Amino acid sequence: MSYGTRVISTEGRDLPPWKRFRTHKISPFGRDDIGGIADHSRNKDDRKYETVGKLCYKVDPTYYKVDPTCHEVDLLCDKVDELFHKVDRRRGKVDLLCEVVDIKIDRVDRLYDESDRI
Fold first, then answer.
1. Of 49-63, 67-81, 92-106, where does mean pLDDT reach its minimum?
2. Residue 42 φ/ψ, nearest 5 degrees
3. Could you tell me if residue 110 is inside a domain?
4. Within a domain: residue 76?
5. What superkingdom heads the lineage (predicted)?
6. Residues whose CB falls within 8 Å of the CB of residue 3, separated by 6 or more in sequence, listed in order
7. Could you give the number of structural domains in the chain?
8. What is the pLDDT of residue 3?
9. Would the pTM count as exceeding 0.70?
10. Is the Cβ–Cβ distance between 7 and 24 less than 8 Å?
């Protein structure tokens, strides 16, 4: 077993991402001592975790900027749906008009049939 400091994750805590690591100190006397929040000025590896955490934290606000645009896309989809409903209504009106035209054509056909009989 090597002596020094290991970094173990303490995920699930309400800490900023760069503070979610604790030091696990391995003592030369054969016992493990769990320390407090990692002091990032002591270990280069800890500083790497700190910068990665800060970068992850900086990414989150840009993710929130994506949500409003998705909301705008949803609104556009709702408008498209409304337009399709309007088109469907107009198609329904066209279908009704076609039925009316068919009825009138049937009446005209009957009139021609009656005129042929006479």
1. 49-63
2. -85, -35
3. no
4. yes
5. Bacteria
6. 26, 27, 28
7. 1
8. 47
9. no
10. yes
